[in-house]
Amino acid sequence: MKSFLILLITFFVISCNSNRPKPIKLNSENCEFCKMTIANGKFGAELITQKGRYYKFDDVACMLQYTKSNQVLVKMFFVNDYLKENELVTAEKCFFLKGGTINSPMRGNIAAFSSDKEQKEFQTKLNAEPMTWQQVYDSYK
Amino acid sequence: MKKLICILFLLLFSISNAKTIEVGSKFPVKKIKQALQLAVDGDTIIVNGGVYKEGNILINKKIIFLGKNFPIIDGQRKFEVISVNADNVVIKGFKIINSGYASLDDPCGIKVYDKSFVKIENNILDNNFFGIYLQNSRNCLIKNNKILAYGKQEQLIGNGIHCWKSDNLQIIANKISGHRDGIYFEFVTQSIIWRNISNKNIRYGLHFMFSNDDAYITNVFKNNGAGVAVMFTKNVKMYNNYFEENWGDSAYGLLLKEIADSYIFNNKFARNTSGIYMEGTSRIKVEKNVFESNGWGMKIQASCMDNEIVNNNYLKNTFDISTNGSLVLNTFNSNYWDKYEGYDLDKNGVGDVPYHPLSLFAVLTEKTPSAMLLYRSFMITLLDKSEKVLPSITPDNFIDKTPLMKSLPL
């Protein structure tokens, strides 16, 4: 009985302390910053605060502006993989491209890729500039 | 006089010089692409009824492209159906179906690339990713088109009429449904949207981004996922529109965000979750509108300033106004509020006691939405009444000093 209880408690603790993103429901959820309905699963973004709250955004630009203007204590950032449909991946592990022919909903024009190979491939295709997450993060104040 | 005749003659000559090419199964020219090859600037191509599956049709000559009995041009889910790459092209009377889908390059029913004076009239666009897409175009006319798509939630789909970096456009009398945004304007200036019907689109009926100096007049926006959004824009005129039945947690009849110097006149907001939601808006005049049977008539966030709300009718809304701050930087004058309980002793049509449009409960639910559970309970009604007499939570200068006794005939 005791071990079962411990198991139960650890299960609860783990499930509360999740580092997984919650999937974005396209066309029904709003961007926390610009209030637009999130409709494009290539540019969406999400963050988890240190208290465990989730906020969803339609553009990386919105997420970073929201974070900086409200001084949010962020645990994790997630972004949509540009080459997939509405899949959130950890922002630190991504490779970014900015500008060129990338058209994101709020003109952040930043696309995320999960490998540097894809980044290189699309750099010429989209005529865009490569960036790291740190550079993306620092480009908003 | 002689000169004039000479010019007239020349003109006639130049008109008669243009030839007409007919396309159809009964004609020597069977394919549209063949006709396009034969044509020169100024020619007319008439396409007769039938189904044409010719991949991407690129119009790169100044031609008039007419359909007889709505010939069907099928993109077979693979191609951009018609690409316009010449000035002065007219496209009229076609049924354009099944453009390519969901790829990275936004395939369209009809796309205009950096051109002027293109007319797209009387077409039916069915089941395309984007309907009509104008990119970097000027002085174009989009009129009387029916644009249908069958987008669902959780699915990527383009906009009905998508305009980007353009100016002097006229979007008139189109019917759009089932797209992401019915009409989408981004960096579009000096343009007019008139007499369109945009309903059942997944996101917005009309969506403005960074588009200054435009007007939209006498349109109907009904049953869209989230109503109409006008964002990051200056100097937009909104007259005589209907905003109806935009229901949902994140749905607004009209969403205004970061917009300035605009004029909202004589519109009707009926049966929306929120009639107007304003955030970061300034110097807007809201005049002679009707707000009827909405959850919230207007939600004015504290970031709004210098807006004037004059001569509107507020009828049968659950809440007429709500706000999230205590600072009042907007003025309310001479509106009709059906919840007004004051009197008019001097019989001049204006109530003698000011009206507080902001109810206590509206403020409470703004802070804790779940308090809505207590709506219409005895305690809340009591608190609301006492708040009206002695404002404590609601800002006491949030008032209409000259509330009207009778609704305006709008």
TrEMBL record, chain A:
<dbReference type="InterPro" id="IPR008719">
    <property type="entry name" value="N2O_reductase_NosL"/>
</dbReference>
<dbReference type="Pfam" id="PF05573">
    <property type="entry name" value="NosL"/>
</dbReference>
<protein>
    <submittedName>
        <fullName>Copper chaperone NosL</fullName>
    </submittedName>
</protein>
Automatic annotation (TrEMBL), chain B:
<keyword id="KW-0833">Ubl conjugation pathway</keyword>
<dbReference type="Pfam" id="PF13229">
    <property type="entry name" value="Beta_helix"/>
</dbReference>
<dbReference type="Pfam" id="PF05048">
    <property type="entry name" value="NosD"/>
</dbReference>
<dbReference type="InterPro" id="IPR006626">
    <property type="entry name" value="PbH1"/>
</dbReference>
<comment type="pathway">
    <text>Protein modification; protein ubiquitination.</text>
</comment>
<feature type="signal peptide">
    <location>
        <begin position="1"/>
        <end position="18"/>
    </location>
</feature>
<dbReference type="InterPro" id="IPR039448">
    <property type="entry name" value="Beta_helix"/>
</dbReference>
<dbReference type="InterPro" id="IPR026464">
    <property type="entry name" value="NosD_copper_fam"/>
</dbReference>
<protein>
    <submittedName>
        <fullName>Nitrous oxidase accessory protein</fullName>
    </submittedName>
</protein>
<feature type="domain" description="Right handed beta helix">
    <location>
        <begin position="74"/>
        <end position="147"/>
    </location>
</feature>
<keyword id="KW-0677">Repeat</keyword>
<feature type="domain" description="Periplasmic copper-binding protein NosD beta helix">
    <location>
        <begin position="157"/>
        <end position="342"/>
    </location>
</feature>
<dbReference type="InterPro" id="IPR007742">
    <property type="entry name" value="NosD_dom"/>
</dbReference>
<dbReference type="InterPro" id="IPR011050">
    <property type="entry name" value="Pectin_lyase_fold/virulence"/>
</dbReference>
<dbReference type="InterPro" id="IPR022441">
    <property type="entry name" value="Para_beta_helix_rpt-2"/>
</dbReference>
<dbReference type="InterPro" id="IPR012334">
    <property type="entry name" value="Pectin_lyas_fold"/>
</dbReference>
<dbReference type="InterPro" id="IPR051550">
    <property type="entry name" value="SCF-Subunits/Alg-Epimerases"/>
</dbReference>
<keyword id="KW-0732">Signal</keyword>
